[in-house]
Each structure stands twice: as structure tokens, then as C-alpha cells.
Amino acid sequence: MSERIYLFDTTLRDGAQTQGVDFSVADKVAIAQALDQIGIDYIEGGWPGANPTDDSFFDKPPKLSKAKLVAFGMTRRPGRSAENDPGLAPLLNSQAHAMCLVGKSWDYHVDVALEIEREENVRMISDSIALAAARKEEAMYDAEHFFDGYKANKEFALSCVKAAYEAGARWVVLCDTNGGTLPHEVEAIVREVTEHIPGDRLGIHAHNDTENAVANSLAAIRAGARQVQGTINGLGERCGNANMISLIPTLMLKMGFDTGIAPEKLQEVTGLSRLLDERLNRVPNRHQPYVGAAAFTHKGGLHVSAVAKDPKTYEHIDPALVGNKRHVVVSDQAGRSNVVAQLAESGIELDDAAMRRLLDDVKQREFQGYAYDGAEASFELLAHHAKGDVPDYFDISRFRVMDERRHNAVGKLITESEATVQVEVQGRTVMRVAMGNGPVNALDTALREAVVEIYPDLAGMQLVDYKVRILPPPKGTTGTDAVTRVTIESEDDDGFRWSTVGISANIIDASVIALYDAYAYKLMRDGVR
């Protein structure tokens, strides 16, 4: 039987310290339930008594089937008993199954920040952990700045963690609080600590300030630690924390540990990663290991040919193991093999004549500046046009956009966009005018209003991302002759997303081309004829 590693997720506390992140109670409940569903051992819900959101969350915590809910806080204050400390009371009175208490383990902080005797700091740790262990199912100690403290004063740092262990801590967690320790240092120090505290009582909490949080966590596991802390997608203060989404499959698939997560549940890590992004209204990181949309995406023609023969050539695991899938993109680095593979992935079959037309079209368009890497919807439309089985749903015969910068009725300076579009749709000429908070928004609104009566499916889609890239101008021309590439990402009511691309010397024209493809792809995917 493989050895057990215990997973401790700190997204609801550490993640909430991320700049721009503000979890609601509903967010925290949904994330906690998702973590419990996948099989996480411990979920740190926050700090009772620190803010109204955490108080509300702990007042009515979600029902968890497997995970233990953990309340986070500090060891008792100097000069107080643990029983009478106002900071510990909310944790002790909460409905959390366990408590995780942070305390100093670096003599510098004790001397300068707390300004107390070092022996008092050790007593604070011991007293607090003993009370937590008596009142809760489990008590844990987060040894803040442990690795810096160990390098500065080994004896004192060890006295802090040994005090927690001897007071009854189920887990003594070694924290690389400023993220500055490197993997070889972590492994050596943790191995030395195991001579004093058993590895099955040690945890690791790593920050990502040198891009080593995952590596440091794995190094600690190699040295004997058996609990690992991290956040979904590496969320956290400054540069973030160890990414639990990378740690879980690495521990299971690469190192052979039992994490308590069933193999079939491992397939849910991609969904868990995207759930957090959805709650935060963030675009998922396409290049995130294991779960990103580009994690198993192949672009170079030689790579595609090799993957077609043996996926292990360029894929370190089967994407399906983590709920992801293989993608082959069409780009200026691709050959016929990429196009064939992309067509196969999309379920499109072309005869030889249609294939030649498509290859010629792709080559010509990429020369103009089109890029179908990341705009798969536009590529599928191109393939269907080569096949001749997708209609021209409507024609944009003319459009006009005006921007006006003025003072409104209350004297505030504003900029408004107004778009006029004329389309030919099913033998009718339709003109619409719309206002927007930008030219593309105004165009999208006017165009949607012009065709939604004929194509009601379009009412259920929206634009969620808009990117512009200015391409180098042709030789012999000036910089103002540069070509503009616009990529638009759209989403429907079911959460399905697709990307389209447009090219023109005019940014508005390029946007209209990408908009048309977005609408056409939605209609084609819905089977509209």
C-alpha cells in the first residue's frame, strides 16, 4: 500500500489575501463544498473573529462529508492565559473540527516584533496548542518563518516546533513564509527536523516568491513531511502559495502517494481549478500545468506527428487522468499533420479537394496575419466553408462607429460610442443603431439587435474577452500601416467558450470580422441552417 499524504487547502484564508480577491460567504461555501467533494483532508475556512465574512461562514459552516473544517488564528498573547485570550475564544467556540495556530519561530521576530523573552514565546505556543488539542479534534501549529528562523538560530526554531509537538499538536507545519528558501535547503532542513519530530506529524506550507512553492513542497515530502498545504491555482498574497492543483496529480501520478483522493476524483481537478476562476470572474490560465487549456496543446508539426504515433512522446501523462484533453492547433509553425489532427479533434471530415482548399486558405490567411492558435472556432468555420456545409447566415453590408467625448448633464466628462450597422439577412435589409461603453461593445449590441429576431440563439451569448495585437507593418511601409489582429472570446448560457479572430488594417473592421465569426460559430454549433 502506498504511503499517505494529507492535503490541507488554505484557499479560503491564504487565497483571500490575494490582491483583487474578495470572497463572499457564498463563494467560500461553494469552494469548500467542491474541495470536500474531490477528497481534500483539511479545509481552512478562515479566521473567526477577524472579519464579518469569516464570522458568518463559521456561524453556519457547510456540511462536509470527508474534510475537516479548520479555524485559523494566533497563539495566545503575551501575559495572558490561553483560556482568557480574546483572540483564541472565537476559534475555540467555532464549529470548526480543528484549529491551526500560527506562532513565531524566528528569534529575530520574537526579539524585535513581539519584544518578549524567547522562553515566553515557547510557552505561548505550548499553552495554546494544549488548549486547542483539549477542545478540538485536532490542533496544528504553523511555524511562521521557520526556515529563516532555523538558518538564523537552529536551537530556538527547534524549541518552538518541539513545544507544539509535545503539547499535542497533530501537525507541526513548517512555513516558508516569505517564499525565499530553495528546494535543496527545504529538503535538508526538513530531514534534520524529522530527527526531532516524526515525519508523519510534519507539514509544509510554502509561498511562491521564487517560483519554487510546488518544488519546495515536494522536497519537504521527500524529506519525510506528510502533510502539504496549498491553494487552488496557487492563489495567495504576493506571488501566491503552493498550487494544490499541481501538487495533487504530481503526488499521485509521479510519486505514487495515496492522497485520499480516488483516481476517478482526480479527473475533477480541472473542474475545480476552473470553478475558482469562475467564482472570481477570472479568465483561466491557459498554460497552467495539468489543467490549462494549453497544457496538452501541440503546435509544432513535428510534435503533432510524434504525438499521433505515441502520445507519451510529448505528453507526460494522459490528459484524461486530470480531466483535461489534448488539443492540436493550427499555426504558422504547423504542417498538414496539424490541420489533419485539428480536423479529427473537431470531428470534421474533408475529401482531398476540400483539404487542398483548406490548406491553401490557411496558408494565405496566415501570410496576411491570421493566427488560429487560440482561435479554434474561426478555424472550424474555415474548414466547414471548404467543405461547403455551412451557410452565410447574414451579410454585414455596412457599419459606422462614432465616438463622442463630452460633458454630461451633471458636468462629468464621458466618452460614448454609437454604432450603426446594416445587414442583409434572409432577403431582408435590417439597420440598427446602439450605444455602448466602447466601439466594439456598441457594434456587438447593434449587430445582435439586427439579427436576433431571425436567430434567437444569439441572445444567449456574450463576449467575455477581447484582445488586440498590432502586427509589424509590411516592408517598405510606415508603422501606421501595421495590421491589427483582434481575438474575441465568447461564452453561451451553458458556459461553453469559443474564440474567433479577425485581421485588418483597421481595428474596428478586424473586430467586426471576429464578431461575425463568433455569431456564425454559435449558430453552426447549435445546428441552425
Automatic annotation (TrEMBL):
It catalyses: pyruvate + acetyl-CoA + H2O = (3R)-citramalate + CoA + H(+). The keyword Amino-acid biosynthesis applies. Pfam families: HCS_D2, HMGL-like, LeuA_dimer. One of its GO terms (molecular function) is (R)-citramalate synthase activity. One of its GO terms (biological process) is L-leucine biosynthetic process. Pathway: Amino-acid biosynthesis; L-isoleucine biosynthesis; 2-oxobutanoate from pyruvate: step 1/3. InterPro entries: 2-isopropylmalate_synth_dimer, AIPM/Hcit_synth_CS, Aldolase_TIM, Citramal_synthase, LeuA/HCS_post-cat, LeuA_allosteric_dom_sf, PYR_CT. Residues 5-267 form the Pyruvate carboxyltransferase domain. This is Citramalate synthase. It comes from Pacificispira spongiicola.
